[in-house]
Each structure stands twice: as structure tokens, then as C-alpha cells.
Amino acid sequence: MIKYPVVVVGSQYGDEGKGKVTDILAKDADYVVRYQGGNNAGHTVVVGTEVFKLHLLPSGVIYGKPSLIASGVVLDPRVVVQEVAKMKAMGKEVDIMIDPLTSIIMPYHNVMDGISETALKDNMIGTTKRGIGPAYADKYSRKGIRFVDLLDKDIFKKKLHENFILNKKIAEKVYGTDFGLDEDEIYKEYTNLAQQIKKYLGDVSKVVHDNIDSKKIVFESAQGTFLDITFGTYPYVTSSHPISGAVFTDVGFAPRRLDCVAIVKAYTTRVGSGPFLTELFDEDGKHMLDIGHEYGTTTGRPRRCGWLDLVMLKYSTRLNGFTSLAITKLDVLSGLKKVRVAVRYMIEGREVEFPLTIDQLEKCTVEYREFDGFTIDTNAKTLEELEPNARQYLRFMEDFLGVQISIVSIGPKRDETIIV
After folding, report:
1. Fold of the 103-145+152-200 domain
2. Where in the sequence numbering do the catalytic residues fall?
3. How much is the pLDDT for 411?
4. Domains of the chain: which residue ranges?
5. Nearest-angstrom CA–CA distance, 119 and 124
6. How confident is the model at residue 101 (pLDDT cuts 50, 70, 90)?
């Protein structure tokens, strides 16, 4: 049984189905808190015939729960306004709070993201060009604009001017590219946006601190463990920390023991560039792409697909301290004659753990354990109702990782879920 407070973490390369699991946990929660990342991430939740696609708003908004955006997030106010309007159009009133220390994504961040990515040519990271990396870079170089700055027109105007001039020079003098932005237009647009979202201002850190012992709180990450800026497949990573430990510094409350649910897709997918040892280029990979509808919520790009990698997940478990596993998209494997999982990495005949650098990772060969295929009945309500081969596949994951399964998703809808 999952206990609150709980942090929900992607155990792989992101896109594991965190939105659906967070939505399930949000039903009984008092607060849902998004603690890092930006609108480069996307969560899809299916409720009946309705499909909710979220990029910044925490998944708790679908249940109408208080949904908090912490200071570790980089926030695009344009997206906030759009998503709130879209939720209202779908008949949902949102209850959100945005921390005043949240960093703001500016139009020049989008421009610089695209310029710098293009300049990499064959070494592109695969960024979504949503301005996430440049916004985090400004935050850590101490020149970023924060939510609270937007609300003081004089402070905002000064910081905008300094950043605008600097980025314009870099674009034109370093990259030899037309900047294509107008400072006055940005000022007008963002002062207007500030007026629209200022009602959401609130001290998320204090709300969490005051309620952590008395309320049920779900902390929601974006992306996945192997896109972590430090522990992921650097440099093919995001610009923040999706791992569980980041929740304390990104939200702003003292370290304590939290339940940590690993969202594990029953196979592996990755968007963008970077190493992917179990990637498939055959009919099985195409099956996962097509049946799993593996296209990015944010970009629409097809995801790279491959077998489940338990060596990766062993490392992910170490980094995050998973207390249970939520297996998603098990139904996508239905119909495959054989299902494989990576169980061992080898370099020159020697077994190794998940390497710390991509140079070492690319030297690895993979050994697999093979299972007979299975078919999933999406009406199943218990593990016992699944076929024996499916149960064997799930038990092997538990035994290999030493972590018990708490949730199994067998379809995209809320009720196509087994709670263990």
C-alpha cells in the first residue's frame, strides 16, 4: 500500500506514464505538487472519453485538487494561461498556486534554445526548444527573472533590458543569427500575463511545510531519472533533477522519509538523442510504437522503443530509493510471441553496473532474459486475473529489483488499472 506523502518519479527516460499514476494517487490527496522541469514535459490522462494533455499544470487539476507549482519549475506564463483556459473549456475549474521564486521562461530563451541546438549540428541533444535549458542556465548564473519580479514593473523592466541586450549580442555576434525579437513587445506581453496569473501567487514551500505531517501530499516530477542533469546520460539530459531527492530543495522543505513510487513502463522508450542499449529497429519495436501510440505529448515526435532494461532500473532504484513500482503500458506487449528484458551489461567479457559516462555505456553489450508472450485483458481487476506468463514477467521485475509492485496499468483509462 502506498502511503502519503509520496513522490512519483519516472524511472527511465521519461514518458513512462507518470500522469496517469499521479492522477490515480490524486484522488485521495489533499495537494499535488509539481517540483521541477517545465513545459517540455507532457502528461496525458484519459478519463472516460476525455483526454487531458498537461505540460505545466500538475495532474491533480483533473480532480480539482489544490495543485502547486514549486520554485524548482521553470514556468512559461503563456503556457499557464493556455492550459488554464483549456481546462475551463473542458469544464474543469483549476485550483493552482505558483511559488514566487519560480523562474520564468522568456521568449529569448526559446530563441536561444533553437539557435544553440542548431549550432550543434550532428551532436544535437534533441531539445524540445521550449526554452528550458536557457531558463535554468539564467537561474544558476543568477540573472534569471522570477515570478515575483514580473509583479514589479520597474524591476521587471530593468532585468528584461539587461537580459535582452545580452542575448541579442550572443545571437548576432556569436551565432551570426537574427534575434528576431522586440523588447517593448515582450515587456507589454509579460506585464499583461503577470496580471492574469498574479492571483495564483503563493508560498508553496510554506504550504508544504505546514501540511506535510497532517495532509496527503503527492509530489510529481517531470521527465525521468536517466534525463537527470547529473546522473542521466549526460549530455543527452534535461536541465533539472527529476530524481526523488530533488523534491526537498526544489519545493523547500526539510528532508524526511517519503514513499517513492517508480513509474516503470513495461518496455523502454526514449525521445531525442542519446544512448539506448535495448533499442529495437524491428517489428517488435514497431509494435510498441504503434500499439503504444508512442508519440511525444509535447512535440509529437515518435519515440524510440526497446526492451525493458532492468540494469538501468537497478541503478534508478539506488538513486531514488523506490518503495514500490507502478508498471504502465503492460497491455502494449500483448500479442508479442516473446518478450525480453535486459539483465546484464558486459564490457570485454566482464559484467558491469550501469556506467557513469556514455563513452562507457556505448562499449557495453547486453544480455537478455526471454519470456513467453502474453495477452492482457484490460478488464482484469487483480493480478490473479492476468495470464500466468504476464504474472511471471511482473514477478521477475520485483525479484530483480527487490521492490514490490503497487500498481499495474493495463490500458490508458483510469479504470484500466490494477491496484495491488
Report:
1. Adenylosuccinate Synthetase, subunit A; domain 2 (1.10.300)
2. 15, 43
3. 94
4. 6-94+203-419, 103-145+152-200
5. 8
6. very high
